[in-house]
Amino acid sequence: MKNDVNLLPTPFTELLRPHNLAHSWERWEGKLSVGVYDNDVREYFAIRNAVSLYDTSPITQYRITGRDTARFLDRLMARDMTKCRVGQAVYACWCDDAGKVVEDGTVFRLGDGDYLINVQEHNLAWFEDTAYGFEVSIEDVTEDYCSLALQGPLSRRLLEEIGLSGIADLKFFRLAQTELEGIPLLVARTGFTGDLGYELYLAPRDAERLWNLLWAAPIAVRLVPIGSHALNYARIEAGFLQVNTDFIGAEHCLRPSQRRSPFELGFDWLVDLKKPGYFVGRRALEREKAAGGPRRRLVGLDIEGNKPAVDSFLYAGNKEVGRVTSAFWSPICKRNIALATVEAGHDALGTELRADIWTTKELKIERSMRSARVVPRPFYDPPHKKS
Amino acid sequence: MSPAMTPARSRYDAVMIGGGHNGLVAAAMLGKAGKSVLLLEGSDAIGGMAASREFHPGFRTAIPHLLYQLHPAVSRALRLHRHGLRLAAADLPTIAFRQEGGTLALGDSRGAGDAGADLLAFRQRLARFARALAPALARTPPRLRTRDLESLATLGRLALGVRWLGREEMRELLRVIGMNVADLVEENFADPTIKAAIALDAVIGNAMGPRSPNTVYTLLYRLAGKTGHRAGAIALPKGSMAAVAEAMAAAARAAGVEILTGTSAARILVKDGRSAGVVLPDGGEIASDLVLSSADPRRTFLEILGPAALDTNFVRRARSWRDRGTTGKLHLALNGLPAALAGAPARYLLPGTLATLERAFDSLKYGDLPERPPIEIAIPSLADPSAAPAGKHLLSAIVQYVPYRLAEGDWSNRRTGFVETLLGTLEAHIPGLRAQILAQEFLTPADIERMTGASGGHWHHGEIALDQVWMLRPQPGMARYATPVPGLYLCGAGAHPGGGITGLAGYNAARQAIADGRTKERSRP
Questions:
Q1: pLDDT of residue A83 exceeding 60
Q2: pLDDT one-digit tens code per residue, A184-229
Q3: What pairs with residue B259 in β-bridges?
Q4: In this predicted structure, what is the pLDDT of residue B134?
Q5: Which ipTM did the prediction report?
C-alpha cells in the first residue's frame, strides 16, 4: 500500500486489515490508524447503540516513576494531582509559562510513585524540562503497550463475556490491573466517546490472543471496529476537545495569539488556583483572572438546520466574533452541533449568534446564515456512561 | 558559632543574598532608603570575587586586580571617598610585551605611549561610540511595551546619543557594533602587538576569540565604564580591590545594613507565590518581603530559589545561560621585582598576536590548554603596601582561555604542567622572574567557582554577549531586576549591565525594588 509505506503497524494492524474495506489508513504519530472501515455512520452507531473497537495503540504514553513523582505531577498539571489516588484516572491539562495549554491527557495512577500519562502528541521534552530538579524518571513506554478502546452500551457485557467478571464494579475513571487467561491487562474505565466504555492496555505480544478472545464472545456479533471519523463524531457529542482541531498546543503554535489558556478552552475545572505550591503557568493564570478573565471562550453551539457548520465564522450582528472548530449533525441528539471559540461577552448560555455556513452541492457552493445558540456541553451525556 | 554570626532580628525589610560588590551597593542603597537590611555572605570575607585573601603569609590579593568601570553614580551615592576609597593610581599606563621580545608602551586614557597617533584616534573614536551607548549600558533597561516615561527617556537618550554622533559616525557605529574585533583592528593597524592588545581587551573574561562576533561590543562595553570620571582609565585602588569592597561595606554599615559573613542563604522562602524571606543553613528562617540576590542567575534560580517556583521555559533559559568561566588567575609572591616590571605601576599585557590569541581560543573551545596563554599582569604591591610584606611584591596575572573543564585529564594532573607553561612564558619576557618566586598559586575557573560560589567561576556571572545583555540579561522579560517571583530581585553581575566592578547592577536593582515598592503602596486600596 502506497500511503502506509512510512507508517509503522501497531500490533493490531494486521488483525484490522481484513475489516478495513475502505483501505482508509491514516497517520497517527507515525503509526497506522484507520479513518473509516466501511461506513462511518454505521461505526458511529456502534458507539452509541452496541459496542465499538478502536485501536488506540499509537497513543503516546509516558511512565513517571521516582521519589518526587507526585510533586512533579502537581507542578506539571494545573489541577491538584495530590488528590489522585492509586487506581484512579484523572483528566488534566498542562500549561506553559504564559498559562497557555500545552496539551491535555489522562493520568493513571498505577501505584505509589508510579503514573502513566496518555497523550495525543509527544511531550517528552516538556515533561523532562519541567522535571528539572525533581527526582523522577520519565520514560516513553508507547512501544511497551498496545491498547484497544471498547466503547458503547454493550462494552461491559463484552468484557464480562470474555471473562472479566468483576468489571461491573469498576467505577467511572477507575483502573483495574488484572489478568485474563494469563494476559496481564490494565483496564481503565475511560474513553473519548462520552459513552459507557473501557480502554484495555496490554503487552504487544498478547494482542492477538486478546483479539481472538474478544471476537469469540457471543456479543461480538454486535462488535464493530471503528475508525477515527466515527470517533470524532462521538467526541464532539461528548464535548471533548481535540488538540490541533479545537486548539493548538502552546509548544507548537507559531502565532502567540493562537495559544489558548485553560479558561479560554473551558478547562476551568482542570485548574486549581487554590492548591498549595506552584504549578507551571500559575502566575500567568492568576494574572489572566485578575485582568478580568479570558478574552475568548470555547463554547458549544446548537445551530439551526442540518448542515454542519464546518469552519464557519460566527457573527453577532455584523461583527465577526468567533469561529467553529468542530461541527457535526448529531443523529442521537437530532441537533446540529458544533464546538466554537468566541470572543468573551458572547459566551453566555443562550447567546444567539449567526453561523456563516458554506456547503457544496454538485459543484455549486451555497451559503446560508443560520442562527447558532450557545448551549451547554456535553451535547450527549447518557446515564449509562457513569452507571 | 560566634554570636556575631546570628542575625539580630528575625524580620527585615530586605535580605540581601551575597556580599559581592553589587550586593553591598544594593544593600547600601536600600539602607539609605530607610529599609532595615540583612546581608548574608557565605564566605568569611565580604567582597565576593573582590574579597581579599592571604594566599601566602603576608601576601594578600583578590580575584579582580584593576578597576575599569566603577560607576561615578555609585561612588557618589555611596560616598565611597568618605568611606575610605582612594586610588593608588588613577590612570595606569599599559605596556605590552611583544611576542618577538621587547615591549611597546600603549599609553593611558589620554595618550597612546609609543604606539602613535593612530591608536589615540582609534581609542577616541571608540570612546565616542561608548559614550553614545552609555545610557543603554548604565541605566535600567526600558520596558518595550510601555508608555512608562523613564523607559521612553532611556530609549530616547540612546537614540539621541547615537544620532548626535553625526551621520558618518553613526553609520560607522552601526557597522562595527556586531563585528569581530580582529576585523576592526586589521582595518586600523599594522603592528601585530597593538592589534593583539586591543583584541585581548575585547575578549578577556568571555569565551570569545578575536574573530568571534560581537567582540567589538564587548570592547565598547569595557570602554563605556568610567573610573574617577575618566573614560577608559584603568585604576589601581589603594589597598587593592578589597578596599573597594570594604568602602562599600562601610557605606552599607553606615546606612544601617547588618552584614553577616560565614552565613549563606540556603533557600529563598516562597509563601503564597511571593518571596517571604530566606532559610539559613541551620534551618532558621529570616522573614522579609523583599529578597535580593547578588548571586549569579544559575545559582539564584536553579539552586537557592529552585526550579519548583519557576515556569518550564524560564528554567530552560536559565539552564542554557552561558556562564562557563574561561579565565584563570595566577598569583606569585615575589622576593623582589625583576627589572622588566620595576618601573612605575603599569598594566602589562602578553597579548601575543591575533593568530596566537585565536589559537588559544581554539584550545579553550575544545577543552584544551593554550600553548601561548594571553596574560594581563598587575603588581598591586607597587601601589598598595598591604598587598605584600615590606620590600616584597605580589604579581597578579589574569590568564585568558583557561577551560573550566578539560576534555582530557583533569586539573589534578594537568595543573603543574600548565603552571610550568605560564611561568615559562612569563620568564621569557621577564627574565629573572622565576628566581624571585617565593610562592605561587593558580586558580582555575573551577577553583574560582568553589571559592566564590559563582557558577562556572565566570567573572561576569555570564558571558557579555549581544544575546545576554541589556533587555536580554539574564532573560527576556527579566531585565528590570524583578524576577518572576514577586519580591525577589536579581542584583548581581548576571543582571544588566553585567560584570566588572561597576556597582551598577546593584545600584539599579535597589532603585527598581524601591520604586516598585512605592508603586505597590500607591495601588493599595
A1: yes
A2: 999 999 999 999 999 999 999 999 999 999 999 999 999 999 999 9
A3: B39
A4: 79
A5: 0.93
Q: Which amino acid is at A42?
A: R
pLDDT of residue B1: 35
Contact B309 A130 (CB under 8 A): no
Q: Is the dihedral of CA A108, A110, A115, A116 positive or negative?
A: negative
User: Are B298 and B305 spatial neighbours (Cβ–Cβ below 8 Å)?
Assistant: no
Contact A215, A223 (CB under 8 A): yes
Closest CA to B277 of B36, B85, B445: B36
Place of cell 535600567: B140
What residue type is assigned to position A220 of the chain? A
Q: What is the pLDDT of residues B476-507, one digit of tens each?
A: 878 789 999 999 999 999 998 888 888 999 99
Three state DSSP letters for B239-299: CHHHHHHHHHHHHHHHCCCEEEECCCCCEEEEECCEEEEEECCCCCEEEEEEEEECCCHHH
Q: Is the pLDDT of residue B86 over 70?
A: yes
Quote the pLDDT of residue B112.
Answer: 84
Distance CA B315, CA B428 (A): 48
> How do the domains of chain A map onto residue ranges?
2-57+145-226, 288-385
- CB-based contact (8 Å) between A134 and chain B? yes
Residues in a beta bridge with A339: A300, A326
Q: Which of residues 319-348 of B touch A (CB under 8 A)?
A: 319
Which among B302, B309, B313 is the nearest to A278, CB-wise?
A: B309
Query: Which residues, at least 6 apart from A99, have a Cβ–Cβ distance to it below 8 Å?
Result: A261, A262, A281, A282, A283, A284, A285, A287, A288
Across the interface, whether the CB atoms of A278 and B313 are under 8 A apart is answered: no
Report residue A129's pLDDT band, with 50, 70 and 90 as the boundaries. Answer: very high
pLDDT at A104 over 90: yes
As a whole number of angstroms, the distance between CA A132 and CA B132 comes to 42
* Cross-chain CB nearest to B306 (options A133, A281, A286): A133
In this prediction, residues B96-116 reach a mean pLDDT of 90
CA distance B4 to A373: 72
Query: For domain A2-57+145-226, which architecture applies?
Result: 2-Layer Sandwich (3.30)
Could you give the C-alpha distances from B63 to A340, B378, B397, in angstroms and in order?
Answer: 63, 12, 9
- Give the per-residue pLDDT at B227: 58
C-alpha cell of residue A195: 459513552
Cα first-last separation, chain B: 45
Q: Chain B within 8 Å of A280 (Cβ-Cβ)?
A: yes
Prior bond to A378 cis, omega within 30? yes
Distance between CA atoms of residues B462 and B140, nearest Å: 18
A274 contacts in B (CB within 8 Å)? Answer: none
State the virtual CA torsion across A324, A326, A332, A335 in degrees, nearest 10: 10
CB-CB under 8 Å, A277 with B308: yes
**pLDDT tens digits for range A31-46:** 999 999 999 999 999 9
Amino acid occupying residue B440:
Q
Q: Which residue has the cell 529578597?
A: B291
Quote the CATH superfamily of domain A288-385. Aminomethyltransferase beta-barrel domains (2.40.30.110)
What whole-number distance in Å separates Cα of residue B504 and Cα of residue B71?
7
Chain A: give the shortest CA distance to residue B311, in Å. 5
Whether A34 and A225 have beta carbons less than 8 Å apart is answered as: yes
* β-bridge partners, B267: B279
Q: Summarize pLDDT for B340-367 with one digit per residue, the tens.
A: 998 889 999 999 999 999 999 999 999 9
**Pick from A60, A132, A61, A116: nearest CA to A84:** A116
Q: What tens digit of pLDDT does each residue of B413-437 get?
A: 999 999 999 999 999 999 999 999 9
Contact (Cβ atoms closer than 8 angstroms) between residue B376 and residue B397: yes
**Residue B273 touches partner A, C-beta closer than 8 Å:** yes
Strand B37-41 vs strand B11-17: parallel, antiparallel, or unpaired? parallel
Hunting for cell 566588572 — which residue is that?
A: B500
Report how far apart the first and last C-alpha atoms of chain A are (Å, whole number): 43
Largest CA distance in chain B: 74
